Amino acid sequence: MGFVIDTPEVASVAVHGSEDRFPVRRIFCVGRNYAAHAREMGHDPDREVPFYFTKPSDAVVDNGVDVPYPSITENFHYEAELVAAIGKTCTNVSVENALDHVYGYAVGNDLTRRDLQGDSKKKGRPWDTGKAFDHSAPCAEIHLTADVPDVESARIWLTVNDEIKQDSNVNMLIWSVAEVIANLSTLFTLEPGDLIYTGTPEGVGPVVKGDVIKIGIDGLTELETKIV
Ligand code: MN
Fold it and tell me: For all residues of the chain together, what is the average pLDDT?
């Protein structure tokens, strides 16, 4: 059996120290997972349970690859995030066992059309046009879990044109990576190839054409993206 059109390319992310790549199945993102960011967006972090949105798998962009300034926005934002790559199937996994299902970690950027997201919030509409557009998920090389034992207490920072904009620590997550995986696995069967963007700290803001965004998390490969 063949297919009636050419099969789409499998989206994938580079793996540190390997020629082979990590195939991307789905991209889940956690909303408002750092208290100071929830506050800057006008919400009370204490009363929020985790919530999720998704991006298409082919929104991933490799490290160093330019991202075109998207259409239909005048407020295009960066969001520095720790990305967890799922390596084993899990449903209803416990917090204690959740991290056994992580293949590795990477630095990601949850690019956002903030104006369209804001309109969607006001109108009670889905966030897809604000969040799930082409090239909206740059992701650097995945590092194997065993190689980054301290990732949950690592500094996370972002610069635009070498000026610091976000500077926090992964230990400020409201819901830890293990808690996110445990909760998300009650809603979806998580499968190898799924990526989870775990949320951004405070300091989000706009970029324009020509800007260079660099994101670092201690122990992981730095992610660099130019907006063109
Ligand atoms: Mn985000």
Answer: 96
